[in-house]
Amino acid sequence: MAIELPPLPYEHSALEPHISAETVDFHHGKHQRAYVERLNALVDGTDFAESTLEEIIRKAQGEVFNNAAQTWNHAFYWQCLRPSAGGGGGAPAGALAEAIDRAFGNFDGFRRQFDDVALKAFGSGWVWLVQRAGGGGLALASTANAATPLTGSDTPLLTCDVWEHAYYIDYRNARTKYLEAFWHVVDWDFVGARLK
User: Fold this and answer.
1) CA-closest candidate to residue 77, choices 143, 122, 174, 173
2) Most buried residue, 51, 73, 79, 114, by CB count within 10 Å?
C-alpha cells in the first residue's frame, strides 16, 4: 500500500500574507513530496510495504524512519495551520486555553516559551506542544531532524516546523519573523480537538 502525499486542507495561497504560496509550493509540493516518494521507494518489496505510515515510524530506523517521520510531521504541521481570514491565529478558547493557563501561566507565557524553544532549536527540527500520556498536562518538546512524538507516549497537539525550508523563501534566515507569522495562522480548533 503506497503512502500518498496528503492534499492540503486549503489552497496554496490561503496562508498569505504570513506564509506565501511560493513557500507552500516548495515546502509541500517539493520537500514533503520528496519524502513521500523516497519512502515509497525504500519500502517497496520490504516488510513495510503493507504497513501504515504510523506503523513504519514506530518500527523503522535510519533512512526509512527519517522519510516516514518527515512525511507524518509535515502532514501534521499543515493541519495545525488555518488561514487567518478563516479563523486562524488569535488565542485558543475553552478546555485548551485552560490547559495552557495551567501549564504555562497564561497564553502569552506559553507563546514566549514556545518561541524560546523554537529559537534555541539548533539546526533543523520541530517544536511541539504535547499532552503528557494518560491525559496529563501540557508540555513543550523540541525534536531534531525527523524525530517525532509518535515514537513516545505524548500526544502531539501543535507543531512548528523550524527547518529552514519552512521559512527561507519568505523570511530568509530570520526564524523570529517566521514565528511571528506562524501565530497568525495556527488552527486552534484542530489543536483543541486533539486534547484528551
Assistant:
1) 143
2) 73
Report yes or no on whether pTM surpasses 0.85: yes
Long-range contacts of 189-192 (CB under 8 A, 24+ apart): 189/82, 189/87, 190/79, 190/80, 190/82, 191/80, 191/92, 191/96, 191/129, 191/157, 191/158, 192/92, 192/93, 192/94, 192/95, 192/96
CA dihedral 30, 86, 146, 134 (to 10 degrees): -150
Q: Please, what is the average pLDDT of the chain?
A: 97
The residue whose grid cell reads 507543531 is 159
Question: What's the pLDDT tens digit per position in 95-106?
Answer: 999 999 999 999
Q: Which residues pair with 128 in a beta bridge?
A: 141, 159
CA pair distance 38, 105, nearest whole angstrom: 43
